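User: I want to check something. If I give you two sequences, will you return the structure for each one separately, not as a complex?

Assistant: Yes, each is folded on its own. Here is the first sequence with its structure:
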Amino acid sequence: MNNIFLITKREFLTQVKKKSFIILTLLAPLMIIAFGAIIGLMFKANESHNVIEVVDRSGLFKDQLPSDSKLNYIFVPVAEEKSKISTLKGNESLDGILILPELNNHNFDDLEKNTRLVINSKIGFDTKQRIVSDISNVIKKEKIKELGIAETQLNNLDKSFSLKTINVSEDNKEDSDLTFGVKSGLSMVLMYVTFMFIIIYGVRVMRSVLEEKNNRVVEIIISSVKPFELMMGKILGVTMVALTQFIIWITMSVIGALVLNTGFSSIQKNIPGRSEGMASKLDVTQIATQVSHSLLELNFPLIIFVFIVFFLLGYIFYSSVYAAIGSAVDNETETQQFTLFAILPLTLGMYGSFSLMNNPDGPLGFWLSMIPFTSPVAMIARIPFGVPAWQIALSITLLVVTTFFMIFLAGKIYRVGILMYGNKATLKELWKWIRN
């Protein structure tokens, strides 16, 4: 046991003393935010401004097509239609000409059939859909007038129904659309982070084992410690590194949410109607404040506890597999035939968990969070929505038992494989090592 502790300490200190670890740990949250901002700016930079001239023979659309910063409608006389089309090619200041035919006997089907958009260059799909939507809105208003329905009556008919949801299982808290969105977002983030870190740090263990095996350093180490102790020391050492990063990131996230939450009360008081329609009245900073408030209303101690427990158990489970793979092969090329067995179940659990957003208490969510191969990501995906205590306890128990069993199997493979050279490992060969 003392040897496992010493190897764990060495692995942990070796990793955390690196400058790359310190920089990545402190800057990773900022890098994620910056990455999101860059993606947003890329979409913004790719936006186009289109100028469309409109020839309206029907007289129905005059001043009815709204222009904005993305799309500008310019109405031109009907007599200039042919000359405009003939000079359109090569006209860099004009993107297209919208030709709206005459409206005879209020036959809107003929209007749609004969409407044309002559373009000078390729226009985006969004722009085309915007033009279609603008024309459809004008036609819709005209049809409403023919039916004798007033605009106020139509607005009343289109008025959406707001349903307040009270959750008796959560002390009669109101479960708003924003709260559901926050839970869904948190669920996806935690699930994806767990999935990525299990794979990233698991591969790190595998490469560390493989490197020591190829350098023959392991032959010297094995003379002082048992193979099982070396394997467990490596796994636990890297586990502590990952846990340290998570604790720092969780602390930074909670502090950020608390800072943003300080202004939530004053924002509520200054907004008419308070929570009703609040999202449409707030700017980006205030929306972030409200989101942070919704996050702090969740059962954060339970979420953090479940996240850490399932991440650690899931990581140890899969790292045992990666350690066994690293000991059984001689180079990274050979690892590819075995890593699929580690990645596939976890990937199945992650993509299966996307369906949990609509029904976190459904049968799929239950079984994915009980099966040890998928529970490290599935239970974390469910926990923001609330999970019965007995299900959490049962899932942890099953995962603990299976993790110890996987460590036992990996230890038998590691003990033989770490000193095997030039012998290509196969599933049949691995089974022989386990049996013996």
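And separately, the second sequence with its own structure:
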Amino acid sequence: MLNYNLNSLSTNNNHQSAKQEQRLYQHLQDLARQQDPEELIGNFRALFIDASGYFIPEIWQVMETIIHADPDEEEFHNILNRSCYILINCWLQNPQLQKSIPELVSIFQVKPNNLPSCWTSKRVRTLISSFTETEKYVALQRLAKMFIRETQENTKIADRKLEKLIDRYPYLYEHCFFNDESTDEEQQEIKMIGRRQQQKYEIDLSKYITYQRLPRKSNSIENPTLMKDEELNEVVKYFTKKVHGCQTLRDQAQQFQTYCDFTCSYGTFKDGLYEYLTDTIDPGYSKCQFNRKLYDKLQNTWSDNNTQKPNDSLILGTCKKMLDFLVVESLEQPKHFVFYDLINNLGATIVIGMFLKIVLFCHQAKPYLEQKFSILFNHYQGATTGKVWWLVKSMETLNVAFSTNLVGINLWCF
């Protein structure tokens, strides 16, 4: 649970205003414990959206004191954001109440019920309007979409917008929900949600594969992915069994790590990395242009360091350069033709396997790979999944790759 320090208040020189902020937070915490979500959202709306006619006059006086202290937009936005999270934190503890999170976030899009009754009311409404343009509100909206369930059951996956699938990919949470204004407490909460979702997925995947292997399959265990059963079985096999009858991807990573430990020069390391990444690529595809482009990219990467012994910093930096080339260039330049071409020619399993090989021998590159996928997710979030199925399939495959290789899941069940 996210526990805001009620004494950690906005940097306002007015001590009285700071005390009133504390009273406001305490009031909202009390309401969150006492009222059902519908009543609570109604009171939240009366206090912040309508900014008039609040049922407790003393709390409205608290709001007046805060506003009369003339906080700038950022200060008030921080107050408002904390107020939202006080309610959200309470509902997160009860799965039956989590559907109220989207309702709370959506009220910022509705118009007040009446004209402003005073200067304080008018000022609050102005500040509320500007709040909806901030990264803080965008982060709240993304969080809220995780808990929207009511229409999904009757909507085909292909017709849903990609953004509605965000809850399926915990490895995107930190990159999609965090922003420059996120507090430490908010980040901790998102990380906790991500861990819970990841653990649930791993358990569901383990159960599904286990029951698939039984003589009489159980129909009660659902496939936790968006792949067909046969596809999922092949993907799991690829990420856990020996590739081409020789070694698992983990075995290959360990062997390459040993090679790196004894490599005397950065130039030799890059040659080895090239062979390591391309040995599972179909020669019919690689002989066209891909291998040459990958090789040239590696050779041109920090060539001034070719004679020195590779260190952790050089290795990590090189892996990042490879992911820039293989997945997407950057947030500012979201070019991803290489990735799109790889997926369409080799399939998601082989391509994600190549990314996994990078992460298996250089674990520090995992957050960077996740960030790359968050860039693509945000780039296409407004598209229907049917139009970007290549990306959905890739993210589903990455889920399986991470769950079978990078966590404490019991591989015996695979």
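Because they were folded independently, the notes below concern the second chain alone. The CA atoms of residues 210 and 265 lie 45 Å apart. The radius of gyration is 26 Å.
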